[in-house]
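We close this part of the discussion by returning to an individual protein. Part of our work consisted of pairing the sequence of a single chain with a tokenised description of its backbone. What the numbers capture is local backbone geometry rather than side-chain detail. The amino acid sequence and the backbone structure tokens for this protein are reproduced below.
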Amino acid sequence: MIFSKADHNFRYGQMLVYLFFIFSGFLSSPAAAQEPASPLCARITATLAENLRAVPFDKVVIFPFEADDPELSATFTTSFFTALSSTKKYKLLPLETVAGWQHTGEANDNSLRQIAGNFGRALNARGVVYATVHANRAMSLDKREPVTSLAIQIRMTDTKTGNTAWSLDIKCKGGHFLRQINITQASRIMEQSLQVLIRQMVKEGDIFSPMLPPPRVISSRGDLRKIRVVLQPDPQYIYSTYQLLTADNPRGVFTPHSPPVKNDQGPIILEETHLEDGKHYYCTAIGITREGLANIPEHPFVVTTSGAPKPLPFLQASGNNLRHIQLLWAPSQDPNVTGYTIYRSTTPDGPFVKIADIPNRRQQNYTDYGQDRSNYYGSLADDAHYFYTIRTRNKFGIESRGAPIVSAHTKGAPLPPTEIQAIGNQPGKIPLFWVPGEDPDIKGYAIFRKDGQEKSFQQIDFVSGRETQKYTDTGSWATPLKNNVTYSYRIRSINVLDLSSEPSRTVSATTKPAPAAVKGIRVSNNQFRQVYLSWQPNPENDILAYEILRGRTSDDLHKIARINAPETSYTDDDLQDGSTYWYQVLAIDTDQLSGSLFSPVSATTKPPPRPPQGISIQIGPTGLQLSWQKNKEQDIDHYEISSGGFISSRLGESQNPAFLYEITPKPEKTYTFQIRAVDKDGLTSSWSQQVQIRIPLARDLGKEKK
């Protein structure tokens, strides 16, 4: 960078302020180490004016040294010019500039300072160097005599103020090396003296030299709380180290924050750390020689540290989820970003509360389940609106501005199923059909029912499965659906969190009526061991069969037969004789619905004949003649005669109420008889009472005849 002279002077005065803070660091470096003193001069004293470091001596002229011997003057003048030029501390005007200058009059310090100052101002030089040399020779002024002592006073005057900028007082004792002063000896004395001067300058902060080139800045970059400047290295004989200086503003105090960096012939990287975020820093770089001198700093350049990271350009929020909301973003490409912070609010104006720290820069999604996640779905409120923003975060925890606010709505209760249908005229049941909900979180449907006598709907069942679309209500085992009753239904969708939808529209249907009671039941009576039943056919078109119920009493009837329609009669066989039976007929339709019942009817089977009565026995010529009263039953087929007693035997039968037991009666023997009637159906009466006859003796028999 190139600046005008005014810029240079301003820059010099401005930059020198920081030397108070850094020169002690330079002295501690190897470049500022003092060399052992030469035995030529026992004492060299360098004195610097106060605040010398703040004066920009951009041009310096050296006047010929005052000496008794012109040759000695020329030797030391030339040696000092060469030695001072090699330090690269000042820009020196050529010695020819003051060729022919000669001091006239008394050679004292005041006169020399005044004359040199006037002459220097005429040459537009800020600094003028003048000196006096006193060489003592042994017992004589002969130049060929050896020098016994040497005293040199060198001064530099500030032509602007007329004050002495610095001075060198050199005292050398005579000896082998001082016997004859030559250019080599003079050069060694001047080099040694300037080493002392330069060390003192460095110590007091007067280090800048207009003769040193400014370092070449290759690149500069601000980072997280850090500045990084890359320099093109100079040859090592020019600079041994480099230093970066920074200030808050171009007129501020420039200070270093890191130690000098060694010139190792590779790209020089200078860094300042622990800086503030997002701040402009004014920077300049200096090179430092082995002696501790530095170039005059260039006009500062601005480097800005990384501030808060850039916000993400967008954030997406996906709602319509159960108690959670999904967030999505494109990850930041800033390598300094280490993660993200997510904030949530229930209103677009806030306040926003931090809900998550994302430690991974490459992560690009997050699911907000709420703070107290109690299940897989989360704990956000149902059917609620949430607002979100996201901020990038660097390794120091500095966050960006929030991304544009986005919002999403959590899912509420599901919608009820639609197109509900209830199918009526079904036997003891009502089928329901509906179009299932599309919400994937529906786990099933709750069925509600009421009949005409109930005031409110009651849940009767739950069917699982979102895609379920039918249900058949048959009631319960204890309370089945009634026939010919109208029932009303509503259905609610239930999601996986047991949230219930609003009820669907109400639908109604009536169960199928049971068949009517069978009418016109007729029964036969007095039938031999059977009862014949007949009835009128039911009016329903879907009668499948009739069930016959029978009991020995009217209140205890049981099914005994099933007659397929359209038959309307039935014969009940194998009944007991003379028994009364009660009957009912039940109509059964094709849906196995049983009709109602009328009062039972009774029928009595044919009884057996009564036992014969009025039995008499007569002794006849051919046997014993039995006779009895004829039974009143009209269908008596015959009578059976049996001997009475414990062991009876059949004696015969007769179709009429008389029977001859052909036997020759034995006197004094008793004969016993029993008779029973048998009808045409084979029904047998019980045995009559026993009748007996005793056969008398013959004489008694004759008496009876008389």
Observations:
- The radius of gyration is 71 Å.
